[in-house]
Structure formats: structure tokens, C-alpha cells
Specification:
The chain is mainly α and 247 residues long. The protein is 78% helix and 2% strand. It has helices spanning 4-18, 25-34, 41-54, 69-86, 88-98, 100-124, 127-145, 151-164, 168-178, 184-193, 199-210, 214-246, and strands at 57-59, 65-67.
């Protein structure tokens, strides 16, 4: 869950963004009250002044506040974090339903297929695709630095490699196994729980592909998937120990 302070900031930013006119502390107070936050108008005013100081909002004469571009970006960041937290319990349920063996079986299949896709991509990737892959990596770096989800970046990264391999059969097989990216948020959740990093793996795969070294590309991809398998094993051991202690 978002902390109380972050949640309050999120609700205020969202309230200002949803208004077609500048808003004041009274409007903020009434809106927050509907969200279950019972604060005084004076407190709302103080928070707005703090938001001005942070650069999230700016006053429009005596009409009230509007969001600055920085405030809009902060709202997007908090919305992403809110979304991740909101679906946290759902992800746990999906993990439980999918099960450890099914997840590992999926990853073993991915290891075989994606190892070959990375090898082929190192041979056939175009300059345009290299640039696209680089842009996805840069997006992932930014999201990691800001504590945001990289699930979409992960899907794009692996999909670009599959397309660069120029093998439609392997590409289609990967789509089927990855369930069109539905498992990426699950694996991201697991990696966060075991404090694992995926960015370095992706950078090594990228380096091997752009230097057009098929063997190194295959090795980097296989190592990446094996790291994911290890993360799943660590997660299940962690959950098992936690459940054992609670019994």
C-alpha cells in the first residue's frame, strides 16, 4: 500500500488534475472527505503550500491551484505505484494458482526458445531494431530509478528480440508461452520479493546482440532465464518458511 502521506498526495494531485478549473483548499478538503480523509481546510491549505514548494502545483491568482508539468509527472508515478499495490493481492493469487512447477516449466520452455531467438537476433538484427532495443533499455533504467514497474519494458524487450530473430515459428511459440505478457507482472512481483535485479541481465543480452556474437547472446539469454528460475525457487522457499513459522 502507499504510505498515508503518499496516498494523500496522490489524491490531491488527482483531484486537481480532474478539475477543469483551478481548485482551492476548501474544494480539496471536501473531495478528500469523500475519499475518507478527514482533514481541516487549514491543513489542506498547508499541504497545497508544500506542494507549491515542491514544484507540483502553482497558484493562478486567487482562483486556486493547477498542476505543473512536474506535478503531472509525479501523478503518473504515483498512479503506477498505486496500480502495482492495488493488484498486489491479485498477483499473489495468480502465483498461487499458477504454482511453482508451472512457472518453472514455462521458464524452462522459454530458456530453450529464447536462447535460440537471441542467437538468431545477433545475426539478423537491423540498426533500426538496435535503436528500438536501446530505447526500451533506457525506459527500463528510468523506471527502475523511479521505483516504477518494468513489466511492460520486459515484454517489449523480449518481443523485439524475437522479431529481430526473423523466425516466425519461434516468435509465435514465445507469444504462446509468455501468454502475451500476462506473466511479466507476476515475475516482477517475485523478483521484488527476493530483491533480484533484471536490468543487468538485459544489458548483457543487449551487448551480445549488438556486437553480433550469437554464442554470447544465447549464453546471456539462457543465464537470464536461469536467474528467473532461481528467483522463483527462492520465492517459494521464502513463502514456505513464512507459512511454516505461522503454523
Amino acid at each position: 500500500m502507499l504510505s498515508n502521506k503518499k496516498n494523500l498526495l496522490y489524491e490531491i494531485l488527482k483531484t486537481i488534475a480532474n478539475s477543469s478549473v483551478p481548485v482551492g483548499s476548501g474544494y480539496i478538503r471536501e473531495t478528500l472527505k469523500l475519499q475518507g480523509h478527514d482533514i481541516s481546510e487549514a491543513t489542506a491549505g498547508r499541504i497545497l503550500r508544500e506542494m507549491d514548494a515542491e514544484g507540483y502545483t502553482e497558484k493562478v491568482g486567487f482562483k486556486g491551484r493547477v498542476l505543473t508539468p512536474y506535478g503531472v509527472e509525479k501523478l503518473r508515478e504515483l498512479e503506477q505505484e498505486h496500480k502495482i499495490n492495488h493488484y498486489g493481492n491479485e498477483l499473489i493469487n495468480v502465483i498461487k494458482v499458477t504454482g511453482r512447477k508451472d512457472l518453472i516449466d514455462i521458464l524452462i520452455a522459454r530458456k530453450v526458445i529464447e536462447g535460440q531467438l537471441a542467437r538468431l537476433a545477433a545475426k539478423y538484427i537491423t540498426q533500426k531494431e538496435i535503436k528500438e532495443l536501446e530505447e526500451v533499455l533506457e525506459s527500463q533504467r528510468n523506471h527502475v530509478e523511479n521505483g516504477l514497474s518494468i513489466a511492460d519494458d520486459d515484454v517489449k524487450f523480449h518481443k523485439l528480440i524475437a522479431q529481430a530473430a526473423r523466425n516466425r515459428v519461434l516468435d509465435a511459440a514465445l507469444d504462446l508461452i509468455r501468454q502475451h505478457g500476462q506473466l511479466s507482472p507476476v515475475l516482477e512481483y517475485i523478483r521484488k520479493k527476493v530483491q533480484s535485479k533484471v536490468l543487468l541481465d538485459h544489458e548483457k543480452i543487449f551487448e551480445a546482440i549488438v556486437t553480433r556474437d550469437p554464442e554470447a547472446a544465447e549464453h546471456a539469454m539462457v543465464n537470464h532465464i536461469e536467474n528467473l528460475i532461481s528467483d522463483v525457487e527462492k520465492y517459494w522457499n521464502m513463502v514456505y518458511k513464512s507459512e511454516s513459522k505461522s503454523v
